[in-house]
Write a structure and sequence with these properties.
The chain is mainly alpha-helical. Helices cover 71% and strands 3% of the residues. The chain has a two-stranded antiparallel ribbon with strand order 1-2.
């Protein structure tokens, strides 16, 4: 990925260098039409070249783009995962898929969601702009990123901590689903209800830390999706005794 971004950056720089000589005569002609003579002096600028600056920026930025992209994918998969799970319990999913296909799709969504979360968390370890240590991504309230103060009480990096809690919630749900779904169905079903608490943690984690969710249309869409998913979860919890 690093080499790909570097190659793209260098290619854009190369195109700019190729086009530049053809643009200079046009500027010179336009200037000559307004002035009889122009004194030009070219002095070398000390420091790294434009290509080096672009390469350095690409080297620093790629973990952020991966974290951001994986986070967006994870949220979409989580919403689909919850809605498909509710559909399995209520029977609505079986209107569109056969039972075996519906269960297989739900399982595939869960595994894809877990992979997206791992990529989202793992890429943070390579971020040089906002450095995260292994302890910061594994233990809540270790990170100092965007500390929160509520009613005069310092809560540390609360929204990062919600992401850590969600990470462990995802791990528990996926592992228990792989090991207990047939052997200990009752415990598995009870643990599976953690997915709703995990979804709440993810919602506020993204709402206050997501780069694209600070304001505007994407923040509105995020809130609408969160409300819709929350209504579906409340409807499912009314049937909790049937699990």
């Amino acid at each position: 990925m690093n080499h790909l971004i570097t190659r793209i950056t260098l290619s854009l720089v190369a195109i700019a260098i190729i086009i530049a000589p053809f643009a200079v005569p046009k500027v010179a002609i336009a200037a000559a039409a307004t002035q009889q003579s122009i004194d030009l002096s070219v002095r070398p600028v000390q420091g790294p070249s434009a290509a080096q600056k672009l390469k350095e920026r690409a080297d620093v930025s790629w973990p952020w783009y991966i974290t951001r992209g994986a986070g967006i994918v994870a949220v979409i998969l989580l919403a689909l995962l919850i809605l498909s799970g509710i559909g399995l319990v209520t029977g609505y999913t079986f209107r569109f898929f056969e039972p075996l296909t519906a269960w297989a799709t739900h399982k595939a969504l869960g595994l894809a969601f877990g992979i997206a979360v791992l990529i989202h968390v793992g890429a943070l370890l390579f971020d040089k702009f906002v450095p995260f240590s292994i302890a910061a991504v594994l233990f809540p309230f270790i990170s100092n990123y965007r500390p929160v103060t509520l009613y005069g009480h310092h809560l540390g990096s609360l929204y990062v901590a919600l992401g850590v809690f969600a990470f462990y919630g995802v791990a528990i749900i996926i592992i228990s689903s792989l090991l207990w779904i047939d052997k200990k169905p009752r415990r598995w079903k009870l643990l599976h209800l953690l997915s709703y608490l995990t979804a709440i943690c993810v919602f506020f984690h993204g709402l206050y830390l997501g780069t694209d969710l600070t304001h505007g249309t994407f923040r509105t869409i995020w809130i609408v999706i969160g409300i819709a998913t929350g209504i579906a979860m409340l409807y499912r919890l009314k049937r909790a005794r049937s699990v």
